[in-house]
Amino acid sequence: MQSLEERDMVSCPYNKEHVMLRRKYQQHIIKCRELHKDTVELFVCPFNKAHLIPEPEFYQHTKSCDDRKIIVQYLTSEPAELRADTRHDKIEAEENWDDDREEDYNPQVYCAQANIVREPKGMFPAQRKAFIKEERRRRGDKYDEDQTGPSKSRAEKRPTPYNSNQQRSKRPDN
């Protein structure tokens, strides 16, 4: 088994006895935050959301957070210089995705118009029955109002099960 190094393990800010793998930390924090919501109040570091700090230490942490240098470096760095060889002319296109005159795509409308088999999922029985009836009408299936559907025709073709009360053919005894 692979040995776990100290850098792979972290402790919970709510309960220091909780030690876990770094990859399980976020999942654990959600549970522990709910358990200790009335007793412990921790502030979230503005540079790393995984850092939860008690109020007295929060100011010092924001000054010395390891992730602060990444943000500060980004904010203080100069923007990239645009040179003539990196610039290009504006690209004109015929289609405009911001045009509000086009109707939005609605998958339900498309499926109702196309020859697609749809299933009634998450509906109440009455809704499901009406949906199935409408689908059969939409697809042009021959559906007789008297029948309950294809299950009746299959039942007629099925042989009757064995009945123990039926007389058995007797074999002649030798």
UniProtKB/TrEMBL annotation:
This is Blast:Gametocyte-specific factor 1. GO terms for molecular function: zinc ion binding. The keyword Zinc-finger applies. InterPro entries: TRM13/UPF0224_CHHC_Znf_dom, UPF0224_FAM112_RNA_Proc, Znf_C2H2_sf. The keyword Coiled coil does not apply. Pfam families: zf-U11-48K. Residues 131-142 have a biased composition (Basic and acidic residues). Keywords: Metal-binding, Zinc, Zinc-finger. It comes from Drosophila guanche. Residues 121-174 are annotated as: Disordered. Residues 9-36, 42-69 form the CHHC U11-48K-type domain.
